[in-house]
Amino acid sequence: MEFNARYAVTGLFALVVVAAVFGFVHWLKNTGSFGEQTQYQVRFTVPVSGLANGSGVLFNGIKVGEVTRVSFDPQQPGTLVSVISVMKQTPVRADTFVGVDYQGLTGAANILLIGGSPESPVLPGQNGIMPELAADPAGSRSWTQNAGRVLGTLDELLGRNTKRFDSILAGLERMSGGSATEEALVFDLPLPNDFPPPLTEKNFQVAVSEPSLVLVFNTDKLLREVADGAIEPIQGVRWQDNLPNLVQARLLQSFENAGYASQVLRAADAADPDYKLLLDIRRFQIVPANGPRAQVHVLARIMNREGAVTASRAFELSTGVEGNARTADAEALGKVFRQMAAEIVNWTIAQL
């Protein structure tokens, strides 16, 4: 008898443990807290990413419960219905804001309850039906959904105002010296070809440096002098390159045309030249004096290996602009440069 009684006590203990485990699981599933719970039904009219059973419920940032069920409304396919279980003392009222709080970039979602006025009534359950809360659509979208809506709105705005934005861009381009209505014509500086035979008895090496100039000339735009000495770009035309680079390149080609291709180099290509040809562009523009005229003023200096200036000369030439076509200004400046380039080459060779 004593042996059977011992087994009976052991079996009874096992049954109590199993029942306690089942009770604990039931408690976790239905309440999840040591306090008394109140359930609410939350209705969403926009998609909610990351919301699932077990998601937290926050009231003013403090966790007060969790989501116990997430489902669809068969009668309204665009509606999402969730059931939340929160601590009974949570002051959920008729005007409590309901939204979704997304945690960082992971997309984990918590239902967020915020405030409510003290005068607003507490939501009671009626006839066993859970009180219902309507979520605010604006507070229920994720940051990616909001970004998509903003981009969509921006795209619609741009589409409706395309002509206005085009006008604004055209104005900005005109202010910066560009042309919004026509393609700019590109011009080169012409080269002189009528040179005397090269002087074979002279043996020297000359490095042509990039011209120095004031900032306004460091551009590929043709320039016009207007009232009070101000300078503005000429619309619809431009040079092939920035003016200092173009002048240096065409002067080198002018020396080549004169027969001195092996003796005249760029300053960057000559390690230790006998001489350097230094150029300073003072004027390279259209001026209004005596009718529109193309005027070019360049100061040339020759420096020996010791750094002493052995010769210098100012070259200043001008010619009238013929016609009103937008090509006339570039053609006039090119004509003046071709004559000046020939004079600079002949003068440089004579000094050496």
Cα radius of gyration in angstroms: 44 Å
pLDDT average, as an integer?
80
Q: Strand order within the widest sheet? A: 5-6-2-3-4-1-7
**Number of helical segments with 4 or more residues:** 5
- The portion of residues assigned to helices is 25-40%
Q: Give the biggest sheet.
A: 7 strands, mixed
> Structural class, from helix and strand content?
alpha/beta
Q: What is the string of SSEs from the N terminus onward? A: HEEEEEEEHHEEEEEHEEEEH
How much strand content do the residues show? 25-35%
Low-confidence stretches: none
Overall form: elongated
Tell me the number of strands: 16
Q: What separation lies between the terminal Cα atoms?
A: 136 Å
Question: Could you please describe the fold and organization of this structure?
Answer:
With 352 residues, the protein is of the alpha/beta class. The longest helix is centred in the N-terminal third of the chain and has 29 residues, at 2-30. The mean pLDDT is 80. The chain has helices spanning 2-30, 143-160, 162-175, 243-257, 328-351, and strands spanning 37-44, 56-59, 62-73, 76-87, 97-103, 108-114, 132-134, 185-187, 206-208, 212-213, 221-225, 231-239, 264-266, 275-287, 293-304, 309-320. The strands form three sheets. The chain has a seven-stranded mixed beta sheet with strand order 5-6-2-3-4-1-7, with no helix packed on it.
Features:
5 helices; 16 strands; 352 residues; elongated; alpha/beta
Chart the SSEs and their pairings.
Layout: H1 2-30, E1 37-44, E2 56-59, E3 62-73, E4 76-87, E5 97-103, E6 108-114, E7 132-134, H2 143-160, H3 162-175, E8 185-187, E9 206-208, E10 212-213, E11 221-225, E12 231-239, H4 243-257, E13 264-266, E14 275-287, E15 293-304, E16 309-320, H5 328-351
Parallel strand pairs: 1-7, 2-6, 8-12, 9-13, 9-14, 10-14
Antiparallel strand pairs: 1-4, 2-3, 3-4, 5-6, 11-12, 14-15, 15-16
